[in-house]
Write a structure and sequence with these properties.
heterotrimer; A alpha+beta (247); B alpha+beta (387); C alpha+beta (297); A: 247 residues; alpha+beta; Ribosomal Protein S5, domain 2; five-stranded mixed β-sheet; four-stranded antiparallel β-sheet; 11 strands; globular; C: 297 residues; six-stranded mixed β-sheet; 5 helices; 34% helix; 27% strand; ExoRNase_PH_dom2_sf (chain B); mRNA 3'-UTR AU-rich region binding (chain B); ExoRNase_PH_dom1 (chain B)
Chain lengths: 247, 387, 297
């Protein structure tokens, strides 16, 4: 299996941007963040002590509907919690996150939005890092499906996701907190715990008894948290290449 | 506000503000004071609205309140009230642009399943029809004045749209409504014709046995499920979903058939002929929020401990998980948990579980919340059975 | 922020002064476009277009729907352009602004109303089912001239797109998946493109493909929609200072040259992409054949 592909800061106009592509599910997301930015039209909604986080999801080949509003709500609540909105320059201003679905199948009306949620989360996180929005932590998210035979499948394709008995999205912070869980289908709590464990190992790598993180998930892909870190490191490296050369 | 119902007044006597004003000025401190009374005072930890942490508000339901619908219900959870009306409309297959296309793909699917020897399960076909043809159309509106801030003439708010999606998505994933209840069939008279072989195969065993021409789907019932929140005092989803559930249990569809002579669908006006929907299970939703003690304390420097560290010194960083939060409590917490459970032969099955907006709730708490939700299921079943 | 940052007086004067000496800020001639870069995604009809720093993604999609009651023989074709805060911080999500309305209108007139995509060919079964083609334009970086850029991207997308094959058998429509039958290209009748001019200094200086700064400094604009054969299908002098009538006539010739040039460039990229796909397709086929051979053995 191929790991995800991501890159930072490709757009000129937005304060920060990132693209994220998950080959397994086929989704490709382009994220842009403008922050901190004045929101004159939203004056009523602005908070006196904090930044207002706004999320906008733009589907690739349809107009946005109720499903987008729902997933925007989830993203807003997850991202709003990790943005340090009380830092200087942020109160009474907006953090506007725009996510365009530029590749992959459409999420039809009434379809589950879970399949695309991890990609949206990652694109939003990387775009915020690219825009230098102060964050309390980073995170990584994964989608898991439980098949009829009880197997746990990582990143099922949209067709496989439809056939799955239950679907689960987990997001873990870099410090192992469970930030988000969305599960649907029919399952028991014991199954859920197994899935949670698997998700944690995908996101953080397997933690062996001596406390070292080993890259055991699959053979090709390291942990997702490691992937996020590497993507950012690559960008920093290329941004400061001129300094490195002069040394 | 709910605070006026507080039975006890834990504010120190030196403070000369009435509790209702304190609740408005310092909402976080007010709720925190209720939940963590000083150890000397011998007061129990209780929510500002007088409920215990895992106690739901008084719930009532009444079905069949509206006369011009096929099914309806009013559900009230505390001060949150939802009305739901279900209206059934006929959708002719000839009006569905993708109908014949759909048949083609179904045919292929059927062929494939024959090859591999795995029969298509009834469930999957159900989900396909209901979802692809949009046979369930829920819409939720937050009516003007249901809470301060809902002004007339405003477009559907993000909250209303998101709740509509949640209802639709839960209707689909729980497979509550059976597609077979929504199909209107035509059984052609036995004329030895072999032209009707395209109609949905693999589900009607009886006609195959009789050897006659196959039944054909001529139309579908489309259920328009309209939910109106007439009063919003926190936790709208539980109330809205309960009203949808009660209304669908109340829904009766008239007997309908295809009249070949008039080439149209006829419905019987005899109430005795009308059939109730046969629903799959009874998924009940329970929502919670997590109230943290130190939101105000961590004003500027946000220090987040490791998940492991946090577990060890749980006492220091206190938080309470409040069941069925009212509007006041929702405003003071960001982390939400929602669990939808069903029971099959006494065994609890989770249909949907979601949590977001924070990092204090993890598996141990969720396990407990599933148990709480299972208890709530018993209570809701009793209430819905009586209505 | 709901307005683009205004051009400073110094910047405006600098641009105008330079134009008087026939110099543009990026060194282009008045009739030069910025470097145009078009590439295609994995899916059919997924176009990524860069015109200088203006960056656009277009996705074409098709679905079967019911035709309109009054036009039972016609399929549907829609162009959807929605500006989001991604393209420019000045654009607010979920709110329409003037640029959006203007660009949508222009694109509609040039591509849709000139019947560049033959909608009758989209009919599957009269009055029952037809194809609905949708072009979604995502402006992800805005540096002026979105109309021309979007127009090129949509036309490239329509030529690149392949819809699933559909046949009617016994009054039933059968749509074949991409893996069952080779998908079919859309029927393009002609290839109109828009060329936007901006006028400066009492229409003494007229340039094509203005950047955002040049747009802000301009006194008026002129849009000409024209195809490779030289048929004008749209002409708009929408707002701003009056322009010289002869200049408009002269510029039509410039526009025609530009359209021929751009269409040739698009053709080249399209052919290259098709050749690449054919190669991959052949490789897949031979692999499938090998698999079959193995099975027989």
């Amino acid at each position: 299996m191929f790991g995800p592909i991501a890159s930072l800061s490709q757009l000129n106009r937005a304060d920060g941007s990132a693209s994220y592509k998950c080959p397994a599910t086929g989704y490709s997301i382009l994220g842009a963040v403008n922050a901190p930015i004045e929101l004159p039209a939203r004056r009523d909604a602005l908070k006196p002590e904090e930044a207002t986080v706004e999320v906008f999801v733009k589907p690739g080949t349809t107009t946005a509907g109720v499903g987008e509003r729902y997933v925007e709500g989830i993203l807003r609540s997850v991202l709003g919690k990790i943005v340090l909105g009380r830092e200087k320059g942020f109160p009474r201003r907006g953090v506007v996150i725009t996510l365009a679905i530029v590749g992959g199948e459409n999420v039809e009306r009434g379809d589950s939005y879970l399949t695309i949620l991890p990609a949206l989360l990652h694109a939003a996180l990387l775009a915020m890092i690219s825009a230098s929005v102060p964050l309390s932590m980073t995170f990584s998210a994964t989608l898991l499906g439980v098949t009829k035979s009880g197997d746990i499948v990582r990143d099922p394709s949209p067709t496989a996701a439809k056939a799955a008995v239950s679907l689960h999205v987990f997001a873990f912070s870099s410090k192992n907190h469970l930030l988000l869980n969305e599960s649907e289908g029919r399952f028991e709590f014991d199954t859920w715990e197994l899935v949670r464990e698997r998700a944690l190992s995908i996101c953080q790598g397997v933690i062996s008894s001596d406390g070292d993180v080993t890259m055991d998930e699959g053979t090709t892909s390291a942990s997702l948290n490691g992937f996020i870190r590497e993507t950012v490191e690559d960008q920093v490296y290329s941004d400061y290449a001129y300094k490195l050369d002069s040394i | 506000m709910a605070s006026t119902t507080t039975p006890s007044n834990p504010t120190p006597p030196s403070l000369s503000l009435p509790p209702s004003q304190f609740a408005r000025l310092q909402p976080h401190a007010y709720l925190l004071a209720h939940l963590s009374p000083p150890p000397a005072s011998n007061q129990p930890s209780i929510r500002a609205n007088g409920r215990a942490t895992s106690q739901f508000r008084v719930t009532s339901a009444n079905a069949g309140s509206l006369t011009h619908t096929n099914g309806s219900a009013v559900v009230r959870i505390g001060d949150t009230a939802a009305v739901c009306g279900v209206r059934a409309e006929i959708l002719h297959t000839k009006d569905i642009a993708s109908w014949s296309v759909l048949q083609a793909s179904a045919e292929q699917k059927f062929d494939k399943s024959n090859e591999t020897g795995v029969p298509e399960s009834q469930d999957e076909e159900d989900k396909g029809h209901i979802q692809d043809l949009n046979l369930l159309v829920p819409n939720l509106s937050l009516s003007t004045g249901c809470a301060p801030g809902f002004t007339p003439g405003a477009p559907p708010s993000a909250l209303a749209q998101s709740l509509s999606h949640q209802i639709l998505s839960l209707l689909h994933t729980s497979r509550l409504v059976k597609a077979d209840d929504l199909r209107i069939w035509y059984q052609p008279p036995n004329l030895d014709s072999e032209e009707f072989h395209n109609a949905g195969e693999g589900m009607e065993v009886d006609t195959e046995e009789s050897g006659g021409p196959e039944r054909e789907i001529k139309a579908f019932w489309v259920l328009y499920i309209d939910v109106m929140i007439i009063s919003l005092a926190g936790n709208p989803f539980d109330a809205a979903w309960a009203s949808v559930l009660a209304a669908l249990r109340d829904t009766k569809l008239p007997k309908a058939w295809w009249d070949a002579d008039n080439e149209t669908i006829l419905c019987s006006d005899d109430v005795a002929d009308a059939q109730k929907l046969s629903l799959r299970g009874l998924p009940v939703s329970s929502s919670f929020c997590s109230f943290e003690s130190d939101v105000a304390a961590g004003w500027r420097a946000v220090v987040i401990p490791d998940a492991e560290e946090q577990k060890q010194k749980k006492g220091a960083q206190q938080r309470w998980i409040l069941a069925d939060p009212d509007g006041y409590e929702e405003g003071l917490s960001q982390e939400r948990v929602s669990v939808v459970v069903d029971k099959e032969n006494g065994k609890t099955v989770i249909v949907k579980m979601e949590k977001h907006g924070g990092w204090t709730v993890d598996s141990d708490d969720l396990r407990h919340l599933v148990d709480v939700s299972a208890q709530r299921w018993d209570e809701m079943k009793r209430i819905l059975d009586q209505c | 922020m709901s307005k683009e940052a205004q051009l400073s007086i110094a910047e405006r004067d600098f641009i105008l002064e330079a134009l008087r000496e026939n110099v543009r800020l990026d060194g282009r001639q008045p009739d030069d476009y910025r470097p145009l870069n078009i590439s295609f995604g994995e899916e059919y009809g997924h176009v990524k277009l860069q015109l200088g720093k203006t960056n656009i993604i277009v996705r074409i999609s098709a679905e079967v729907t019911k035709p309109r009651e009054d036009r039972p023989f016609d399929g549907l074709f829609n162009i959807n352009l929605e500006l989001s805060a991604m393209g420019s911080p000045a654009w607010e999500n979920g709110r329409t602004n003037d640029i959006e309305a203007y660009a949508t209108n222009t694109l509609d007139r040039i591509i849709r109303h000139s019947n560049a995509l033959d909608t009758e060919s989209l009919c599957i079964l009269k009055g029952v089912s037809c194809w609905s083609i949708r072009a979604d334009v995502h402006i992800i970086d805005y540096d002026g001239n979105i109309t021309d850029a979007a127009c090129i991207a949509i036309m490239a997308g329509l030529q690149h797109f392949r819809r699933p094959d559909a046949v009617v058998r016994d009054g039933r429509v059968i749509v074949y998946g991409v893996e069952q039958r080779v998908p079919v290209p859309l029927n393009i009748t002609h290839k109109p493109l828009s060329v936007t001019f901006h006028t400066f200094n009492d229409s003494k200086h007229v340039i094509v493909d203005a950047t955002l700064k040049e747009e802000q400094a301009a006194e008026g604009d002129l849009v000409i929609g024209i195809n490779s054969a030289g048929d004008v299908c749209y002409l708009s002098k929408y707002a701003g200072a009056p322009a010289d009538a002869m200049a408009i006539v002269n510029k039509t010739n410039v526009a025609w040259e530009k359209v021929k040039e751009i269409n040739a460039a698009v053709d080249k990229v399209l052919q290259a992409d098709l050749a690449k796909r054919a190669k991959i397709g052949m490789a897949d086929e031979s692999r499938a054949e090998n698999d079959r051979l193995v099975q027989i053995e």
